[in-house]
Design a protein that fits this description.
Helix content is 26%, strand content 19%. It is α+β, with helices and mostly antiparallel strands and 252 residues long. The protein folds into two domains: 98 residues, Phosphorylase Kinase, domain 1 (2-Layer Sandwich), CATH 3.30.200.20; 142 residues, Transferase(Phosphotransferase), domain 1. A hairpin with a 3-residue loop joins strand 1 and strand 2. Helix 4 runs antiparallel to helix 7. It is globular. The two termini are 24 Å apart.
Length: 252
Amino acid sequence: MGAGAYGQVKLARQKSPDGSPAAPGADAAAERIHYSPVVIKYVTKARILVDTWTRDRRLGTVPLEIHVLDYLRRDGYRHPNIVEMSDFFEDKINYYIEMVPHGIGGGMDLFDYIEFKVNMEENECRRIFAQVTSAVEFLHTKCKVVHRDIKDENVILDGEGRVKVIDFGSANYIKNGPFDVFVGTIGMSFSSSQSISAKLTYTLQTTQPPKSSPANPTAAPRRIFGRSAFYSTRSYTRRTRSTALTRSWNMS
């Protein structure tokens, strides 16, 4: 489904006891429980930064991403527009974060959706943007968590306009701030102007980085007009999704 600096994401299904892909059976209830598709995020241990590990009495020593996602699935800390971790496991090479797919085939990220639907109506932009800002506000005020990598590729739509913010690989707790190292995605297509200027004093000393703020000046123009408000010499990467997935979407 995708790949990043620390691993990759795949759409998976549990195998039957003999190792073959699970086939539909007579017990529909059991099939829904055991054989439903899941999204698996691979996090390569060798690529995890030293300062992003944390110790927990219940979870053990885990990446901060897993600790934050576990925290966000507790009662009172769930949000309809924030991805929820179902479980996680590990081997010698990777951590594996299991999540429920959001939409058909795991959904479509906002980057691809903007590329596909070039004439998006303003009202639809508002609905998407309102859901993203609702999720970010909840993280900041209720959970005391900063995402630190809000961008269109980390926003997933399910085909009916429902949004989930994903990828907490750069997330941290506000109490651990102020943060003096830039994380997330650097570049004029995603970062606010002050984040990429030569004078980073404000950005580096701010507990809630501008790129995670609902007031990020690049966010709304990117969603409404399909491009950054600032000139970039790097052209956007165009990616092709399968015809079957595209046709399965109801764009009306």
